[in-house]
Design goal:
40% of the residues lie in helices and 4% in strands. With 183 residues, the protein is mainly alpha-helical. Strands 1-2 form a two-stranded parallel sheet.
């Protein structure tokens, strides 16, 4: 089964993994037009400081259970010769310099490239009055488009991810992108 992690990230401690969330299976996941993304258009502006990385005093500890699964992911990637990268999406409500430092140290320890998009607010051209759906915790479709455009360039240029648009083997992706009209 495929677990929609981003959509359910806040309930991982209480979830029953035997339950098939949203009906996703290996067989039908390819048919998901958004490929796991949950497009939300609601706008609830963030009204805090632009200096949230310095002023946010959120807890910085990494839970033992989180570390256990992180290490399993690292090992799985090594076994399969997959380069693991870490990305922190912009979140003024929940991110801070302290959290950045903890994740950066973890990535340094394991030799993982880390992209903290909270450090790039100007490069992303985010507007916290229009680009968040819940006062700065998550990005809405407006913010997601900006992050995807920025990070897509990194994936293409640094990791040489090929562009498969127009190729017969990926025609369903082209069709679904056209139907969604997100970009």
């Amino acid at each position: 089964q495929i677990f929609p992690v981003l959509h359910h990230h806040n309930i991982y401690k209480s979830i029953n993994l035997g339950v098939n969330l949203l009906g996703a299976t290996k067989e039908n996941a390819y048919a998901d037009q958004c490929k796991g993304y949950y497009a939300r258009v609601k706008i609830r502006p963030y009204q805090g400081s632009d200096q949230y990385m310095k002023t946010n005093k959120r807890e910085t500890a990494i839970y033992p259970e989180t570390m256990k699964y992180f290490e399993k992911i690292v090992q799985l990637c090594k076994e399969n010769q997959v380069e693991l990268i870490m990305v922190s999406s912009p979140s003024p409500k929940n991110w801070s310099d302290e959290r950045h430092d903890v994740i950066q140290a973890l990535c340094d320890k394991y030799g993982i490239t880390y992209y903290d998009l909270n450090k790039l607010d100007n490069a992303l051209a985010l507007d916290w009055t229009t680009d968040t759906l819940d006062r700065g915790d998550h990005l809405n479709i407006n913010g997601s488009k900006k992050v995807n455009a920025y990070f897509g360039k990194i994936l293409k240029e640094k990791y040489h991810i090929p562009d498969h648009r127009g190729e017969a083997d990926y025609a369903i992706w082209d069709q679904q992108a056209a139907e969604l009209k997100l970009y």
